[in-house]
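Q: Is it fine to ask for two folds in a single conversation?
A: Yes, each is treated on its own. Send the first.
Q: Here.
A: Result:
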Amino acid sequence: MASIAYHRPASVAEAARLAAADPDARVIAGGQSVLPAMKLGLLMPSSFIDLAGLAELRGIRADGKSISVGAMVTHAVVAESRELRAALPALSILAEGIGDAQVRNRGTIGGSLANSDPAADYPAAVLALNATIRTNQRAIAADGFFKGLFETDLKPGELITAIEFPISARAAYVKFRQPASRFALVGVFVAQTGAGVRVAVTGAATHAYRLEVLEEALAKRFVPEACSAITVAPQGLNSDLHGSAEYRASLIPVLARRAVQKLVG
């Protein structure tokens, strides 16, 4: 087995330099996706760049208009944060439903977004909540961040430093989870934001995406019944041993209806 170098940078700048210098290096946040991929023989990095020691990537800060979550904040902290519970309770509830206790205490929000797993929960939240992904180089609107299967708009040497969420009036997330992994077979996040109603779907396609037909229906009538009238085409959706594309397509309006029901009571 080839040897793998290990780096524990002292700053984001150092981590970025290491990542830019070696295209085969792998940045580790919580390591919850990297290590399983290696066990399956899908990944063999030349080196690890471990961000665990970077305090500058932790912390949650609110200013009344938005709330910023550091990239290395774990799922458990997102779930338990008083600031998030008060400002964006739907995000905390989402984090509660990720994996098991071990995963929640190791996995991080920044690592999840950078990995862009098609069944991850956070991508639906950042899309629906109109969040901004801040990196060591720039600010990226959520609408332009997810590009494909495990593919994002991040460039070599570019690291997520924080995610900034506008504080929405109301939001809810509902997922139909795969019972073994607790990943979303399909998940739907509905939010009423300053930019209008936004609906994001995860688990159904190669990456999380917004569903405009549901947004338009809910913008006209924000009631659960508005979702029931929507039919989602299965073309381009995932099909695997857990569910066909047709099954996933049928789940989307059902889960959207349940999310809206949570909000209207």
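Q: Second one now.
A: Result:
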Amino acid sequence: MTSRLARAAVSMLVLASAAGAASATVTEYTNQTAYGAATSGSTIFNFDDVTPPGTVSLGDVTLGDLSFSASIPIVVGSGAPLYGGKAFFTSLSATPGIDAAEVLCTLSGTRAIGFIYGDFADGGGLPFTVTLSTGDSFDLSTPFNPGLDTGFIGFVSNTPITSIRFSNNGVGFDVLEVVSSSAGAAGVPEPAPSGLMATGLLALALLSRRRAVKVEIGQQLKTDS
């Protein structure tokens, strides 16, 4: 019986350890209204004040706690005949089809973040991939009217997201706006290790009680005989 209790204790510890290493739950939103309904406390970042209107600048960008880098990082100021004149951050590839055009956004950690994106340099509908620091990866396509239409992609996670990478095999990829939010419900959280430990201790207590009852019954039978 002692060995059975020991095995039960080890099992509970293993379960608690596994719970601590549980993977993140990430919900993807391609509809900005639905994303807004699932989040609160949104802060919107754009590139309007990074580069003067009508000009273009080269280099990485920091907006609040968000940092943007790219294959060839360029900020196009407002007033350009693209996206209704909005400023945007773009990544260009020196060798399209060989080296990907990538935009990397790094941040201190948030449970909800969304992006308005586009592509002015390629034909519409070009596939691209979004990869999160959680290890989750999502495949989408750019809007069909390049330089005019935009798309939205947002994520709500039960663990902090610290990086988002956009990548395609075309000439470029554009980010126009970022919506960083406080996460709403993103599914049922994984059970905490402390909760499993409590369950395990309760199970051990029940096993001990069961063993004590069996011993007591055995002694009573000996006495009666």
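Q: Anything structural to flag on that second result?
A: Two points. The helical segments are 2-20, 32-38, 193-224. Residues 24-183 form a domain with the Jelly Rolls fold (CATH 2.60.120.260).
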